[in-house]
Automatic annotation (TrEMBL):
Source organism per UniProt: Triticum turgidum subsp. durum
Source organism, top-level taxon: Eukaryota
Family, similarity comment: Belongs to the fatty acyl-CoA reductase family.
Reaction(s) catalysed by this chain's protein: a long-chain fatty acyl-CoA + 2 NADPH + 2 H(+) = a long-chain primary fatty alcohol + 2 NADP(+) + CoA
GO terms of biological process kind: long-chain fatty-acyl-CoA metabolic process; suberin biosynthetic process
PANTHER family cross-referenced by the UniProt entry: FATTY ACYL-COA REDUCTASE, MALE STERILITY PROTEIN 2-RELATED
Protein name: Fatty acyl-CoA reductase
Span of the signal peptide: none
Pfam families listed in its UniProt record: NAD_binding_4
GO molecular function per UniProt: alcohol-forming long-chain fatty acyl-CoA reductase activity; alcohol-forming very long-chain fatty acyl-CoA reductase activity
Its job: Catalyzes the reduction of fatty acyl-CoA to fatty alcohols.
Record's keyword terms, sorted: Lipid biosynthesis, Lipid metabolism, NADP, Oxidoreductase
Length: 175
């Protein structure tokens, strides 16, 4: 399916004024999604990024190092110049947590804040390490999706829950 310019404009317009929770933002697709949203719809209200970290400051550092500090954000960096960091700080809210835990391990105040404002949840959190222990893969890829759904039920303004998977399996049959 090819998305026409009209459809792309409608998608961009849909994000205007929305609060979006993204899991897996430090992964390949998460970085691309975050950059694209910030570039084509700078009027998004807030992007909450769930990041595995011990506290919000560690989460902020991880986002800065592994996400917004990467080359993919160069166009935005050039567009905003010296105001790039302020723009990111205004739009991006790193959350220390993990999809494996109930309520992502967020404290009560943070959970209440997020669940009151989130319009869209994009779940891109997963382990794609094919050599990972099965229990670790199961906790992240299966129980994580369950926790996403549980949190989604608490979000009073939720309009969309999108689950994304980066793992694609292809079978090549040779005769």
């Amino acid at each position: 399916m090819v998305i026409s310019e009209m459809d792309a404009a409608q998608v961009a317009a849909y994000f205007r004024g929305k609060n979006i929770l993204i899991t897996g933002a430090t992964g390949f697709l998460g970085k691309v999604l975050l950059e694209k949203i910030l570039r084509i719809q700078p009027d998004v209200t807030r992007l909450f990024l769930l990041v595995r970290a011990t506290d919000d400051e560690s989460a902020r550092q991880r986002v800065q190092t592994e996400v917004t500090g990467r080359e993919i954000f160069q166009v935005l960096r050039e567009k905003h110049g010296k105001g790039f960091e302020d723009f990111i700080e205004e739009k991006v809210c790193p959350l220390a947590g993990d999809v494996m835990y109930e309520d992502f391990g967020l404290d009560t105040a943070k959970l209440k804040e997020v669940s009151k404002v989130v319009d869209i949840i994009v779940n891109g959190a997963a382990t794609t390490n094919f050599y990972e222990r099965y229990d670790v893969s199961f906790d992240t890829n299966v129980l994580g999706a369950k926790q996403i759904c549980a949190l989604a039920n608490k979000c009073t303004k939720l309009k969309m829950l999108l689950h994304v998977s980066t793992a694609t399996y292809v079978v090549n049959k040779r005769d």
